[in-house]
Amino acid sequence: MRAEPAHPPAPGAAAGPSWRRWLLRYEVLLLLVLVVEWLLFYHFGTSVNRRGVTVGFGTLDRQFDILRHSCEIGLLALALTPVILTGGIDLSVGSLLGLCAVVFGGLTHALGLPLPVAAALTLVVGAVAGGLNAGLICQLRLPPLIVTLGTYSLFRGLAEAFTRGSVTYSDFPAGFLVLGQGRWGGLPVQAWLFLAVAVSVWIWIHRTVAGRACRVIGFAPEGARFAGIGVRGQLTAAYVAAGVIAALAALIYTSRLGQAKADAGLGYELFAITAVVLGGTSIFGGRGTVTGTLLGVAAIAVLKNGLATLPVVMRLNAAEELAGLLTGALLLAALAAGKLAERLRLSSVTG
Amino acid sequence: MNRWIREWSVVGVLALLLAYLAWRAPAFFQLQPLLSLLAREAPSLVVACGVAMVIIVRQIDISVGSQFSVCSVIAGLLAAAGWPLAAVVPVAVLIGGSLGLVNGLLVAWLGLPSIVVTLATLVALRQCLNLVRQGEFVNLPERIQWLGLSQSQGQWLLVGGAVGLVAVLAWGLRHLAAGRWLYAVGSDAEAARLAGIRPRAVTLGTFVLMGALTGIAAMMNVVQSPQVQPLTGSGLELKAIAAAVVGGVAISGGRGTVWGVLAGLLLLACISPAMVHLHIDAYWEKAIQGLIILAAVMVEGLRRRRNHAR
What we know:
The structure holds two protein chains of two kinds. Chain A has 15 helices and four strands. Chain A is mainly alpha-helical. In chain A, a hairpin with a 2-residue loop joins strand 3 (183-184) and strand 4. Residues 1-14 of chain A have low confidence and may be disordered. In chain B, helix 7 (177-187) packs across helix 9 (199-222). The radius of gyration of chain B is 20 Å and the shape is globular. In chain B, strands 1-2 form a two-stranded antiparallel sheet.
């Protein structure tokens, strides 16, 4: 994988040999954090598996567990990366996950459609929902934050209305549950899907003209228009893709838990946004990488699962809380460090 | 008139809804249920006004829900420990203010994007509270409830207090120099700086005020129930932002009024009881609220487009 500059080098930043520049890249620093995290948990962590036998954090089972549990939030984070790169935001992905899960449950149970048809229709629902966001944002030029706040409420509300707040769809056939619980080629099945989406988004963002256009729009929307970029088309693609990926995440979620309920994915959008921003993507758009997002997702997932294996934390029964607290602190620290580095760089140029 | 058309249109929709209710479900207008509804919404109103001010300076605060919970739980603990109400209220306001100060310092002095900062404090504060309290309820002493008055007296006092606070804020934003600073900074921070206003100080002050208002709102909520639930206030941030946006506060900063927010919040708050009275399935509430938010921004967008075309 060729290291590509994530943003035009700032004046003065190009100094020094290339390995040093590479080492100071944000992704590399994040990778370092991840490795330190992992080693700490590997050393201090213990846990008890389903048969009551104590297993360490480092076991393969544990790693697969982490992978399984972070796929859905990881997918949402991948969906949000292009959107945030264009300078937008999508708060509705978590609600859309809930809506798609319920739609899928309804299609298979209430209408009795065969699984592949229902799954395809669910992806279409995701695309349509993304298209609704895109239409309001691009055609009417409304602020993405407010539009997706509205659809955040709308999608969750529709999911609640369809299920009357209480219906839970379960009893999915075993063939479908493989998607979220089975293994294929040694890895959890959903990991392959996640990998496929990650590679596609990576190619889109880092290897195509369309991906470059997304960043240009994030840097300067007006400038992008003058440069002849079809801003509306690019934005529409980003929001529709986010909808489709959220629908895919809904299928995986439903399969992993074996049930579909209106509260599926509640609050996931916050974790996904946190992962993207922790991965070094600027919330104002124009700057960021897919690799960074993947590392951000991994850092949060390892932190959450690793803390649960520490004896102290297990005694306090506080893994989730500590993970949330540390994620928040990590996010602020990453932002503040970025800001300070920028100031240092500026002062070294002018001084 | 034309200048405030956005606010008046919300008032108009609210009036239409109330008129329809008066025709189809006159039972909606019984005094006691209506008073309870207003008292229940009073804390949200105070928070929504704070959020509106933050949005007017072109920032956003999504951590208010967590701030609200922290203030509620600490106030509840102090009250349970025997502190008098007169001491608990200032402490709650102080805690809210200092939480706002943290957000404000990170945003105004470090220059970090407010949406990310408050996202981080939203998660961190909430989890911190869970960690310390493990989801435990706080049982409140009886003397705290309804400020030691009877229920309806307490409700009148809360509604009156909230309305008074909103009136003061509305007046301050319109007529005080400090109020105009918010609009100046929100419209164009650089121009405001050149005009002798200190944008950073204004932003910091707005976040602190937001926190203090959250503290007041938390107290308004605490006195209404015999227990403090640690999850109270989760989701409040989105409700407050929705009320502000429906009430005509522009997310791009520099535009909006407190009385518009009042109308927006009342409209959103009336949906749920109105649905009960009109025998509509209650599960549609969230979807309808979402549609109202979308309708409000769409009207705004279409109006702007027409103005551009002219």
